[in-house]
């Protein structure tokens, strides 16, 4: 067991899909994996391992925000020998042409977090980026499917309920597609541990249009991004 994951060595696959919502993790395991077994219920942050088309895959909830996601990412990479993590999350659109239920694949993640400012002692504005092989595979797979997928920069924010939308407006002017809360930390830690990482999100909200999907749909209906992720990691 690591500090926050109740798995024995070997119970977690080298490839992990990581939603923020632990109940989305359960739904993904039950819906897409064969023979899925739960390896951790610590803090109800569920983790499962099963098979997808003959490949061993784990699904681990990360919780919301970079502090929580960093804990699970660190333990997966440092203590369980995980080599590949794909975040399968929800995100809020900040672009007119990025609509609710579209899929967004994050090339890189801008952030308002001070985590990397502290990590690099204020000397570097580090650019957290996805693994190129995973990114190109996911983009190609998505292009061959129905539904709209956008590939570009996302913003990992520490704040869900901010005082103003000014920063999001500015980020949108500079091409950022959508806002979520984990990718920058995931990409940074994957680089540190020489692992592969990618973030695929489904748009659950439009931040400027006041559109939002309810919790049950965020939990159980984002199958397109899950299939894109599973096909990309098993290529
Ligand atoms: O749906 P998940 O994967 O949790 O992702 C998004 O949803 C949460 C906020 O509601 C944050 O974790 C954000 O990144
Ligand atoms: O608006 C949103 C929607 C999902 N996730 C976020 O972080 N923000």
Automatic annotation (TrEMBL):
Keywords associated with the record: Glycosyltransferase, Transferase
Enzyme class: transferase
Keyword DNA-binding: no
Gene Ontology CC terms: cytosol
EC number(s) per entry: 2.4.2.3
Residue intervals of the Nucleoside phosphorylase domain: 16-227
Any GO molecular function: uridine phosphorylase activity
Family under the similarity heading: Belongs to the PNP/UDP phosphorylase family.
Designated name of the protein: Uridine phosphorylase
Organism whose genome encodes this protein: Actinorhabdospora filicis
Species classification: Bacteria, Bacillati, Actinomycetota, Actinomycetes, Micromonosporales
